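Thread title: Can someone regenerate the structure for this chain?

I was given the following input by a collaborator and told the matching structure tokens would be attached. They weren't. Posting the sequence so someone can regenerate them.
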Amino acid sequence: MSPTMFFLLLGLAFLGIELLIMQLSVFWFMFFGLGAFIASASGVLMPGLSWTASVAIFLIASIAVSFALYPVLKKWQDKPGLIAGNDAIGKTVEVVDAISADQAGTVSWSGTDWAAELADGEAPFEPGSMAKIRKLEGIRLLVGR
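Best answer:
Regenerated them for you:
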């Protein structure tokens, strides 16, 4: 097998691992995959490139790609995302099982039944009535008027 074909397959394997298994969380497989593609492209541009030269190009390219892309990708990865559940606050839900101050109940929201409790200072809800989500605590909804 030629170095060109070897590094092409190695690059595909590294990128496949990064995308399918690591899901763009580690980046190192991607850096080595891009280095392998550069080594493979060097073999296409310079036929007859030795294994030693191809390996050297792979290592140098992988290091250069790492130094160039890591700060940018780390900044992108560390960017804060939306807090899960904030989109639920204020949505209307239907009460399935009665909810009172001393008894949790069930509400139907987004096609699923959820455990629900009364938010502080709220009046009880009877089955069939409508409530609004005031807060999310784990998998429990705190509801009110």
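Residues 3-78 form one domain.
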